[in-house]
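Table S5 (text form). Sequence records supplied for joint modeling of the two-component complex.
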Amino acid sequence: MVLAVIEGSRAAAEAVRLCKPDVIAAYPITPQTHIVQELANMNADGTLKSKHIEVESEFSAISAATGASAAGSRSYTATCSQGLALMHEVLFATAGMRLPVVMTVVNRALSAPINIWNDHQDSISQRDAGWIQLYAETNQEIIDLTIQAFKIAEDRKVLLPIMVCMDGFFLSHTIEPADMPEQKKVDKFLPKYRPDHAYLDPKRPMTQGPFAFPKPYAHMRKDLSDAIDNSKDIIQKVSKDFKKSFGRQAGDGLIELYNLKGKKTAVITMGSLGGTVKDASDKKGDFGLLRIISFRPFPKKDIVAALKDMDEIIVLEKNISLGASNGAVFDELRSALYGLKQRPKVIGYVCGIGGTEVTVDDIIKAVEMSKKKKDGDVSWMMEKE
Amino acid sequence: MKEIRVHGRGGMGAVTSAQLLAIAAFKDGNMSQAFPFFGVARRGSPVEAYCRIDKDFIRVRQQVYKPDYVLILDKTLIGAIDVLKGIKKEGTVIINSAEKPKLKTKAKVYHVDASKIAIDIFGRNLVNTPILGAFIKATGEVSLDSLNKTIMEKFPKEIADKNIEAIRQAYEQCSE
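The corresponding structure-token record, covering 561 residues in total, follows.
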């Protein structure tokens, strides 16, 4: 392992280069811009041989990436926030046609009001589109998850698009040490994409994403649902294989447990906040962390197995499901635990919205305050005006 | 863990200062992290950047609230914003100023006329590298050798040489 100090955005771009996509189509938007810029530079320098499609919007970016994937290419795009929202319509088509596009989402808040800072509202709002969503904690994980994402997406048992989510600014604009794998090893781990069912061949014309009457439509949607559920095994397998090749692994690929052994209180979070929770856990000592790496598919069984003996669970999440009074993770987690005879108390905090700070002390205080709260209570963690 | 906060104005390169320190500290065999205050920086407006140095990988992702060291690239920031906020009493302030500034703090205060050095060498008020020479003299937290290596990797030779000379002069001229 050769560590070097690298910015999160550059880490993403370098990892994409290692994966040698055939086609890249992306439109710049803060805080994702550096990724597109780096990739364009690499292309101009000839160190990246991808076909770079210049587009006029995110709608076109995802359309081009999806079309390229349907023609048999390894395709990549990147966006965030308003850009991801603009892609919404096409996201369902990418997944529905079972096309393994990989997209980096540099998580940022949604308008209005306009806010360029980090939260998870953008990707969480796309949770039902049929895309796998993996959340990185560090720049190292951005690299590792990007390489794994292509491998998972292109697995013939999966064939689904993947969002690799990385926190805007907290990772994208932060420099820290990370290891960039060797090209030779990546080539071995991730051979050239050879599609089974989707490729452009004039001698063998085919239709993709055709019109479907209710019955076949329902069957195809069920297949899609099964495919994303079943992708859990492949995510774990690829994570294990990655460890064999590169010597490191984040959790088991789906979730990461930290300091949970012997603890009765667990904090649940996703993304870069995991690091701050780890420091808070070390400082206070009376709680551990369960970090969700894969939000889609949602690893219910694994989460229940890890949390079944807890007294108290505290969810820190950077999104709000408006009208539900809580974030999306809170509901899904609580629902997953419903079958337990002895159900732990679940407390929710909506935090980090629009880039508000969440500090080690904030986390310790939230855990402290939770002792007085009842099961199902949700509150907002906010800096004072 | 040592925490550093850099105060400057948009366009002065405060973010680069924090990044160069992080890379140099890493070359010394430490782990490090650097990031800007996430804002919408305009040329001339106050900006902040942060750097952390530790033996182990740095996991925390919050701003620096209790800095061990504060670097001030422009003395007109004093009074305009609270540059000393949260500084540890055993901490150190390094400021770009010809004369020793009057600061109400128990922390040590070092100063260097980085603007003069920069104008002599670059012909422009580029103080984000010379201030690091003063930082090294005042704190010893990062080695001069690693910083120079970082500069050589980051800039073309001619520019790197000038920066290294500016850093050397600031290192020598920095005083308490």
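Note: Chain A has a mean pLDDT of 96.
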